[in-house]
Amino acid sequence: MKIRKTALIFTACMGLSLLAGCGDEKQQIFKEAEKDLEQGSYDYALDEFTTSVDNGIHLTTSYRGIGICQLRMGNYEDAITAFTNALGTEKVSKSVAKDLYLYRATARLQAGHLEDAMADCQVLAQNYDMDADCWFLTGKVALAMDGYDEASSDFEQAYGEDSSYDRAIQIYEAYLEKDMEADGTRYLEAVLSTEAKGTDDLCDRGRIYYYMEDYANAKKELTDASNQGSQEALLVLGMVYSAQQDYANARSMYQQFVNQKLEDTSRNQTQTAAPGYNGLAVCDMAEGNYDSALENINNGISVAADDEMQSLLFNEIVIYEKKLDFSTAQAKAQEYVGMYPDDEEAAKELDFLKSRTSSVQ
Fold first, then answer.
1. Is the dihedral of CA 34, 36, 42, 48 positive or negative?
2. Whole-angstrom distance, CA of residue 297 vs CA of residue 145
3. pLDDT (0 to 100) of residue 17
């Protein structure tokens, strides 16, 4: 009897140990998901958050993570579903709910569900303290719905809450998308009247001057930023030189950016060398060196985070078209449109390529 009792106790302990190990494994998967999300590895994070949902681990956060991954990957309907599921979980705190409404409104805006997006913005206005992010998103939705006066008021509120360089650029880009550049330029001019407080500000100022086509001041600010160690400044300098068709200097900036990114062993990079490779490919295309351009695109694709992939894949289509390889360009465009169905320019490009391949046949 004594042996039997000991055996039962041992078995019970074994069971507890196995259960604990299983729980630890589930928690580890969730932690990996959060880490991959932070690093922009959305494919991995999506699989891990989905497993966490199946495991019943931190459901609100896991659904939120799925939503962010789907949003970043351009799967807007799936993102909306995930954020809705997160809002439907038990005991969602008010701060988390506000975050989820912001994300869902963004996904609905991207999916073209403007009325639904505005409904989420109205929930935010009625039930939560409106901050700069809320005002900006509401303005962006209003602008998409051609509510120009409402958008203007919302953007003024956003900039009043957060008069940073980033916010001014966001508002400018929102107007730029609607071909209302002049309305956005006043925010750029306003923020340039402030004084730079560090390297990031210098880089942002350079980007603003680039948008305003004031390339002399852009170079000055960006050179100062790059001398202080800003990798981002090198990338924007490449864009400035490209805009001036100075591809030798543009190539030098992009190559420096790539070299520094490849040397950077930090696992917490929010950006890879991919944008630099993309810039090099643009220089190659401008100079008619399409084989080198494809090589740089492929190098970029091999290291790109999910949210860096779209531009590379689009330029790949353009390169094959310039090589007069219309069948490959069409195949690439077909894949691209499947991944990014909201890209109207790509849809037009696909129609053009179909006309070229049919005429060849």
1. negative
2. 36
3. 46
